[in-house]
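Exercise 7.
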Amino acid sequence: MDLLIFVVLFVIVGMLYEHFNKKTKEEYKRKKNQERAIAAQLKKKEDTNLSGYTSPSKIKSEVPPQTANKSNKNTTRQQSASLKQTKSDFSKDRPEQDVLKNRGDGYELHIGRKFELKGDLVIYNGFIQGYADQGVDIVVLPRNMESIYLIQCKHWRKMEFTRAQLDKINDKLDGYLPDYQYIPPEKINEYLSVKKSDAEITTAINKSLHYDQVRKTLYLSSKYVIQDEVWALLEPIKDNIFRYKDLKVVVYAI
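Solution. The predicted structure, written as tokens, is:
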């Protein structure tokens, strides 16, 4: 009798799980349909040197089109410019806030590329999820480690980094509820410079759902924005690597 009750309860719980899981996925797909359409349009028009630099949730405008009287030499020079030079060109006709966003996006891409080159799966959560990223810019699933890396990036030059901001970032990373498993593999691949097959992405994600170890990292582009009260809280590990509680803080300039 007890066994029969257990079996019935097990079946009911399984059905409820399937129902809510299906509903969550449908809602996610519905919410992302419009974003995918926008991303597809932007990707056709992006500069070849931005290599995946399409952020529908963060980039609000496009590079002004070339005028008819510009020479082919001028066009070639623009196409061969570096990412830093291109973003400098963006700043000419954009509000300061957009320029700062572009710098921040470029910094996130730079950090993510470092992990891509090691063979890790990099999910550009901030680009894909936009303002619903839960404070996690990048999720990294290392190739040779059973860990999940949650990364926040701050490319600040003038704004001071305070203890309140440090605690806020740490708390957000602590409270992150994984939802990257619902992102379609093709969406993840869209932002990768080192492309992976859908099977590789799916396999890495499915394995990560069983990992217990989560590592949190904050990347700062400048040590000069860090307030003295924050320095007093940071435990040095290396020249540019520090620890605050269980949060690793890396000062990495580009």
